[in-house]
Amino acid sequence: MSDLVLLTGAAGRIGTVLRGGLPERGWALRSLDVVPVPDPRPGEEHLVADATDLAAMAEAARGAAAVVHLAGISGESTWPAIRHANIDGTYCALESARLAGVPRVVLASSNHATGYTPRPDGGPLREADAPPRPDTYYGVSKVAMEALGSLYVDRYGLDVVCLRIGSAFAEPTTVRQLATWLSPADTVSLVDAALRAASPGFSVVWGVSDNTRRWWDLSAAEALGYRSDDDAEQYAAALIEAHGEPDPTDPVHARVGGEYTTAAFDAENFQA
Ligand code: 15L
After folding, report:
1. pLDDT of residue 1
2. What backbone torsions phi and psi does residue 48 show, to the nearest 5 degrees?
3. Is residue 138 among the annotated active site residues?
4. How far apart are CA 158 and CA 165, in angstroms?
5. How far is residue 134's CA from residue 143's CA, in Å, rounded to a whole number?
6. Strand 45-48 to 66-69 pairing
7. Residue 74 Cβ contacting ligand 1 at under 6 Å
8. C-alpha distances in angstroms, 145 versus 75, 80, 164, 251?
9. pTM for the complete prediction?
10. How many A from CA of 257 to the centre of ligand 1?
11. CA 59 to ligand 1 centroid distance, Å
12. Which of 89, 113, 131, 144 is the most buried (most CB within 10 A)?
């Protein structure tokens, strides 16, 4: 099997983490972004192209073992911008894989696909108990992403793993992120697991570190082979001193999507 991965959105925040970590796990990278990736590594192929350009994407996907699709807008925006970058972009990632005969696609979905889901009273929230419930246009684009992934599995037999990523940052900077943080090292581990899992078919898993305050279940990700090494708790004392203890009745802590479910994310604030 080829070890070549087409990485879209390679110059972005998560792309930069994966460009550092995936080669150490044995993957060769073909990094694609609309801007040149900074400081390409020896052996790293790099392309400047738009992930919504199907012809360019189909060419870029040739010979790859998998596409890891990160390209798109990574938060709320106007509907036309989200529709084009995120929904058309996901279609192009999957369709280019099909056209080029690439058997696997890993999609950067988001917790915001299910953002209005309330925190359960009991044990951790499983993906199966969190059907689409988007909190924003951005969340809608991630629901569409998961739906397109499902279509390409059922109709064309691809393997598609959707990662419902929490808060993938260098370190947590809010009290909510003490629960939702996905560390850089765990980001690499999760994508590596999604690339290696034997015949995952269609799989949707949370992307979160094994945080003490986590309330999203990890067993589906662990079934792919993911093992988290990090816990946001080391940042808890400083964040709580600065911002106070989380109020469990506050929507920011009582719903999957946190701040995205509040009025600050109403459409009036995201006009073209
Ligand atoms: C996401 O999906 C965004 O890409 C990121 O910027 C954060 O808002 C994150 O979710 C989060 O929920 O913390």
Report:
1. 59
2. -100, 115
3. yes
4. 21
5. 7
6. unpaired
7. yes
8. 14, 16, 11, 25
9. 0.98
10. 8
11. 30
12. 113
- The number of the ligand 1 atom at minimal distance from the alpha carbon of 74 is 4
Give the distance (Å) from ligand 1 centre to CA of residue 63.
32
Rounded-to-integer distance, Cα 127 and Cα 142, Å: 14
* Ligand 1 within 6 A of CB of 112: yes
Closest residue by CA, ligand 1 atom 11:
167
In sequence order, the β-bridge partners of residue 108 are 163
Residue 53 near residue 96 (C-beta atoms within 8 A)? no
Please tell me the predicted confidence (pLDDT) of residue 271. Answer: 84
- DSSP 3-state assignment of 48? strand
Confirm or reject: Cβ of 111 under 6 Å from ligand 1.
yes
Render pLDDT for 177-213 as a digit per residue (tens, 0 to 9): 999 999 999 999 999 999 999 999 999 999 999 999 9
pLDDT tens track for 100-122? 999 999 999 999 999 999 999 98
Counting beta carbons within 10 angstroms of the beta carbon of residue 55, is it exposed (0 to 12), middle (13 to 18) or buried (19 or more)?
Answer: exposed
Which residue bears the tokens 């988007």?
134
CATH number of the domain where residue 230 is located: 3.40.50.720
DSSP 200-227: --EEEEEE----TT--B--HHHHHHT--
List, for residues 5-64, the tens digit of each pLDDT value. 999 999 999 999 999 999 999 999 999 999 999 999 999 999 999 999 999 999 999 999
Q: How many domains does the chain have?
A: 1
Probe target for ligand 1 pocket from 110, 173, 174, with the most ligand atoms within 8 Å of CB: 110
* Domain residue limits at 117: 4-269
The rounded percent of the chain whose pLDDT value lies above 70 is: 100
